Amino acid sequence: MTAPHAVGSGPSGSTSSGATRVLGGLSLAGLALLLGYALVWSPADRTQRDSVRLMYVHVPSAIVAFAACALTTVAAAMWLRRRTEGWWVLGGASAEVGLVFTALTLVTGSIWGRPTWGTYWDWDPRITSTSLLFVMLVGYLALRRIDNEAGDAAQRGTRGAIVGLLLFPNVVVVHYSVDWWRSLHQTATITRLDPTIEGTMLFTLMLGIVVFGLIFAWLLVHRFRVGWLEERVEHAGLDDALRARRAEAGVVAGLGGGTA
Amino acid sequence: MLRDAALIAGKDLRVELRSQVTTQQVAPFAVLVLILFGVALDPDRGILARASSGLFWVAVLFCALLAIQRAFTIESADGGRDALRLSGLDPAGIFLGKAAAIALQLAALEVVLAVGVVIMYGAEVTGAPLLIATCVAATAGLAAAGTLYGVLAAGLRVRETLLPILLLPVLAPVLIGATKSFEAALGGVASDGWPWCGLLVAFALTYLAVGTLAFGTLMEEPS
Amino acid sequence: MEPVVHLRGAVTLLGRFPALAGIDLDVAAGEIVLLRGPNGAGKTTLLRCCAGLLPVARGRAVVLGHDLTDRGEARELRRQVGLLGHATGLYDELTVADNVRFWGRAAGATDDAVRTAMSSCGVDGRLADLLVARLSAGQRRRTALACLVARRPRLWLLDEPHAGLDQGGRDLLDELARTAVGAGATVLLSSHELDRAEALADRVVTLVGGTTDGNPQPSPAPTPTQEPVLAP
Questions:
Q1: Between chains, do C214 and A253 touch, taking CB under 8 Å as contact?
Q2: Does domain A25-251 correspond to CATH entry 1.10.260?
Q3: C213 in the same domain as C123
Q4: Dist CA A203 CA A62 (whole Å)
Q5: CB-closest option in C17, C206, C211 to A241
Q6: What is the pLDDT of residues B53-98, one digit of tens each?
Q7: Is C106 close to B87, i.e. CB distance below 8 A?
C-alpha cells in the first residue's frame, strides 16, 4: 500500500498538500506553545498542584475523542444515504484517529487520578463511559476490517455503517446511564476541573482544545487520503480483473467447445 | 409484518422444541455460572446476597449471548440466509419474530436464574411487581439489541468472537438499569427502582424501532 | 413480449473477482434454457444473480421487469423466483413437513398447496415426519424441490438440479419443470448431465470465463422456438 508520506513518488503517491503542510505546521507550533503554557507559564493548582497540568492534555483529547465519535456517526449516516465512498473512508479514518485520542484520554486520566484520588482507576462515570467508548470503537473498526475483506465497494459496509450509525447514540446513552448510576452512589466526586478557573489556566485549556482540534484535523486528512488511495487501487484492479476473466473465455472457447 | 413475525417466531421456537438446546445446554450453563460466582466470591460474608442483582444480570447477559448466537446459527446452516432473502418475508417481521423467540427463551432462563438466586444466594424478594416489570423490559431490550447486532455478526467467519465485543458495551445501560432496579426489588425500596425500569423500557423501544427499520438493509448484506 | 430475463454486458463481482464479466442473455416467457460450461464459468453466479441475490455492478439486467442494478427492486423480484441451489435452505432440526410448510407459508401458500407440493415431490407420508437431518442427499433435494413448488414461482432457477437425484427423481424433476412451464413459468437451469438437460431444454447457452461471448448475439425479440445454440 502507498506509504502516507512517500512525497517523492509524485502527487498521487503522497497524502500531503500545501493545505495539510500549513495545518501540520500550525499543529506543531501550537503544540510547542501549549507545552510552554502548560508546563511553564501557567500556575500550579491550589489543590491538585502540578498534576493539574495533565488536564491541558486530558480534557482536549477527551473532547476530540467524542467529536471524532460523532463524526463517525455522521459519516455512517451519509454513507447509508448517498453510498459514496468518501463517506465510507471518512467514517473509518475518524474512528481510527478517535481511538488514539480515546486511549490518550484514558491514559492521561489514569495518571492524573493516581496523585489526585490515590488510585489509577476510580469508577467515575466519565472513566467508565470513556472505556466503553474505547471498546465500541475497537469493535467498530474490527467489523469494518472484516467487512472490507469480504465484499466490494457496492456490497460491503452496511454492517459497519449500522454500527457506526449507532456509535454516537450508544455513547450518549451509556454516558448518561453511567452518570445517573454513579451520581446515586456518591454525593460528589472530586470535580476534575475547578469550574471557576480563570486567567492563564483557562487560556491554556482553551489553547489545548484548539491545538488538539488542529492535530485531529491534520491526522484525519492524512488518514482519509490514505483510505482514498486504497480505494483507487482497488478500482484500478477491477478493469484488469475483468480483462483477465474475459481472456479466460477466449482461451477455452478457442479449443472448440470441448465440453460438449 | 406481524404475520411474518409470528411465522418466524413459531419456526424458531419449534426448532428449539425439537433440538432442546436452551433447556439442555444454556439453562445448565446459567446455573453453572451462579455456582461459579459462589465459588469465586466468598459465600460466607453475605457478599452473594448483596451482589445477587448484579450477578443475576451478568449471568443473563452471558446466556443472552449464547441464545443470540444460536438463533443465527440456525439461519446460517445450509444457505438459510439466502433462503430467507428469497422467501418474500418482510425483514421487519423477521426481526420482530427472531427477537420474540429470543425474548421468550431468555424469559424462561430468567425464571431459572431467579429461583437459583433466591435459593443459592439467599436473595429476598420484596417488590415482586417491580421484579417482573424489570425482567420484561430488560428482556425486550436485550432481545431487540441482540437480534440487531446478532444479524450483523451472523455469516461472518469470526461471529463468535465479534458479537460480544460489539454487543456487550451497547448493553451496558441494560445491565446498569436492571441491576439497580433489581436491587430495589430485592430488599430495597421499590420506588427507587421504577425510574430505572423506565430507562429499560426506553432502551427496549429504541432498539425495537431501530431494528425494525434497519433489518432490511442488513439482510441484504451477502454472507 | 418483454423477455423474462434480459441481460446486456452484465458484470457481477464476488468480492473483487468478476465472476460474471459480461453476460448477454435473453430468456422469453415459457422457455426452458440450459446453461452449460466448465466449472468456474459463472453458471451458479448467473443463477443467483437472476434470483436477485447478487447485485449487477455494470451493464443492464432486467428480470421479470425488475432492474437488478437497483437494490430495492431486487427484493421485489425475489418473492417471484424459486432457486434450487447447492444449498437447500432447509432447517435440519425441523421435519420435512415443518420445512415445506414454513417456506410455503412465507410465500403465502395455503396448506392445500403445501400438501400438493409435498405429494408431487414424493416427500409425503412416512417421510413427512422425519427430521431433515436424517434425510439422504436425494431426499433433501426432493424436499427443497417441494419448498420451491409450494412457492409457485414465475421463474425457476435450477442449479444442477439433477445432481444427487436417482432416476425417478430426475424424471420427476423434468416433469415438474415441464408442468410449471405449461402453467406459465419460465425455467433457467444449469447442468452437467447434458444428455438429459438438453432433452429438457428448448435452447442451450454456453458460459465460459464469466461471459457468453461464444454464443451468437441474442436477437432483440427471441422466440421460444429458437434453435439450440452450440459453442463454436
A1: yes
A2: no
A3: no
A4: 18
A5: C17
A6: 999 999 999 999 999 999 988 887 777 778 888 888 888 999 999 9
A7: yes
